[in-house]
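Human: Not sure, check this?
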Amino acid sequence: MTPEMATDLVNRAIFSIIEILLVLIVPGLLLGIVVAIFQAATSIQEQTLTFLPRMLLTLLMVVFAGNWLVQKFLDWFANLSQLIPGMLG
C-alpha cells in the first residue's frame, strides 16, 4: 500500500463520515436556532423545549434518511472489500 492510497482511503472515509453526520446534525442545529429565537422572544427558559424537538427531529431524520445512510455504509464497505486485495497484493 502506497502512502497515496492510504491518504485517499482516509480522505474518502472522512468525507463519508462528514456527509452522514451532516444529514443528522444540521436539521437539529437549524431547529435549535429557531427554538432559541422563540425562547429569546418569549422569555421562556425551559430546557425540555430545546431538547425534545431536536431529539424528535434527529429521530425523524434517522427514519427518513435511514435507507440512504445504510446504503452509504454498504457502498463504503463494498468499495473497501474490493480495494483490500489490490492493496495487499
In short: The chain has one domain: 13-88. The CA atoms of residues 68 and 88 lie 30 Å apart. The mean pLDDT is 89. The chain has two helices and no strands.
